[in-house]
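Posted in: Structural Biology > Protein-Ligand Complexes

Title: Requesting predicted complex, S-adenosylmethionine in pocket

I'd be grateful if someone could produce the 3D structure tokens for the following input. Sequence and ligand are given below.
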Amino acid sequence: MIPRRLEPEVMDTQHEAREYDEMDHSGVNELFVSDFLSACPQSILNDSSDILDLGTGTALIPIEFCRQSKQGNITAIDLADEMLKLAKANIERADLSARVRLIKCDAKQLPFENDCFSVVISNSIIHHIPEPLVAMRDMVRVLKLGGLLFVRDLMRPDSVDQLEALVDQHTSNETDYSRQLFRQSLHAALTVSEVVEMLEGLHLPREAVVATSDRHWTVSTLLP
Ligand SMILES: C[S@@+](CC[C@H](N)C(=O)[O-])C[C@H]1O[C@@H](n2cnc3c(N)ncnc32)[C@H](O)[C@@H]1O
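-- Reply #1 --
Done. Output follows.
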């Protein structure tokens, strides 16, 4: 098993934010939103539902959510000013300022009351965080009882050979920058066993995490 190797937590240069925004995330984002909507009981998704998206980046997932669902509003947070600048422009261009609000804050210290969101979602933030349990604990804290926690991230492969095979398979047509970003992110990602340990620390069922592709795990669970 290769050890976890961290990458910088926030993506806060103009270059990083622009490169990230310009990569084609559409297929991954569409799947994220449709999987999350399938997991979300109709009883918790209505006009007044407030959904929290952590590490929103340039807000492409909130925008895709609004395309797929006419119900629910999103509070989207990130710690990187440069990401948030592009997120604001993307939301305005999509004419979604009434449904998506942006807040700069740290996912490890959320400035929200306990039990205030019906749904907490996040794609690809966990591998950025040195102590992911701290962020997961805060996600659970702000989620209402019966609310949905839906978190997806990359999954660290067992060996460098497997890691390089994933880089070749999924980024062969991308720039060197994107390939390197994907490689570093896979090195920084958690394994399913490490996520199970986190779930146990939060008193959540270990079955809540499943490997959902050759390179992703997903936690999907209703808060008991
Ligand atoms: C790989 S991007 C994912 C963006 C988006 N969720 C998506 O799927 O397109 C990870 C984002 O998490 C943000 N991030 C990392 N650590 C954070 C923290 N502690 N609090 C808030 N945002 C954080 C980064 O700045 C970056 O925008």
